[in-house]
What we know:
It is an enzyme of class 1 (oxidoreductase). It holds the Pfam family Aldedh. This is aldehyde dehydrogenase (NAD(+)). Keywords: NAD, Oxidoreductase. This protein is an alpha/beta fold. The protein folds into two domains: 10-263 and 472-489, Aldehyde Dehydrogenase, Chain A, domain 1 (3-Layer(aba) Sandwich); 267-461, Aldehyde Dehydrogenase, Chain A, domain 2 (3-Layer(aba) Sandwich). Helix content is 39%, strand content 20%. It has 15 helices and 23 strands. The chain is globular. 2-aminohexanedioic acid binds next to loops.
Amino acid sequence: MTETIRETSLAxxxxxxxxACGVTAEALxxxxxxxxxxxxxxxxxxxxxxxxxVTEAITKAHEAFLQWREVPAPxxxxxxxxxxxxxxxxxxxxxxxxxxxxxKITSEALGEVQEMIDICDFAVGQSRMLYGKTMPSERPGHRxxxxxxxxxxxxxxxxxxxxxxxYSWNTALALVCGDSVVWKxxxxxxxxxxxAHALLARAIRDTGAPADIHQLVIADRHASQAxxxxxxxxxxxxxxxxxxxxxxxPRIAARFGRAxxxxxxxxxxxxxxxxxxxxxLRGIVFAAVGTAGQRCTTMRRLIVHESIVDELTEKLVxxxxxxxxxxxxxxxxxxxxxxxxxxxxxxxRALADAxxxxxxxxxxxxxxxxxxxxxxxxxxxxxxxxxxxxxVVQDETFAPILYVLTYSDFPEAIALQNGxxxxxxxxxxxxxxxxxxxxxxxxGSDCGIAxxxxxxxxxxxxxxxxxxxxxxxxxxxxxxxWRVYMRQATNTINYSGELPLAQxxxxx
Length: 508
Ligand code: UN1
């Protein structure tokens, strides 16, 4: 009975939030089920796009691009400025959708929308800073410069775990850069997508930008093939598994399209003997357990100096014992559910493999709340002491498992940190400055993100985000990431009235 009331109220608050974001009835109803990992219940259904619909969305986006590319960049910034205002106004509404579909605790769901607002601010500023260089020409009366032009249609493929933030990094920058966007969200988080899309559609209307510069397609892998294959999609920005990247990257390359890939991570922190252990403890727990271990940046490996490993693991086990696991809408909860049953099974398989490979589970791993919520998958985050960096430690299991390894000298710690196929995020906890510098040096961490005295997750939008090796090499969000959304042209301008040739070549 209580459960029925609870379920009804979850669906009701989702409906209210959708309406507040401006999602209309025609965007709902259909065959695709939007489920909540909180309870396993179906919240609503939505219609899906066919392959023809996806191609039509690309056509519309391409036509809109032809107009949009001629709008001055700072004027394009107005759309994103307005989107940022609407996101601020509807922060809670969108966070309700993110929470209901991705299972995030309230603070992290609100944080995800804040990340969207932050990238909007950044992109508005960037719209006045699409700088090109001027280079001295070797010839008299000549000028050499580069200009940056809009690229075309950008296909954005996003994952369930950051259903709207990572998409917004791409979209806010792509739109100020003069591109149009076709967005294929994860099928698991379609309501969050509808909410974010409705707010952007309103920003587009309010600022008088071409209506079709943003297209949302809720489509399965098969129906959305055109995003990968269509030559009009100049850039495909995809977040997901290494397998997804392996499947799409060669096909995009075959048509000479651009790919921006943010794939798996297997992020580690080194804990050195000089580390402030209380600070390290807090950093580790947030990075290993936040979002129930379902961030690309989640800390999955801990590489601890042998002299402090017992003390640190003891502290960690007792900190894990205090974590409140359960309904993420409860203010005291820190660990919400896994996204679905498959994710739970993957976690159990990884734990069994870890044991078979000599690991000892120090805490966690079990399912909780199975009686109250039989269709939802809540788990105790696990800490597993491993004798070596064996196969299971090399894999990214998208669940809260922290493998603990030890080292005796610093080069060994770096070798362990770099000794996995993925290269997204990394961290060191140390008070030895030389060690910290070595860690972030060319011979240190091989990841796209290398932090000192802070965990692996929770990056700000101002830096470039992405990683090396199997992570795919892409960079999105801050710093110079905007450049991937534009094409560069080099211009040589001759005002000399003569025609001297470069490299001293004589001709005619
Ligand atoms: C992701 O998990 O794909 O650094 C993105 C973080 C967040 C973004 C994560 N700002 O953890």
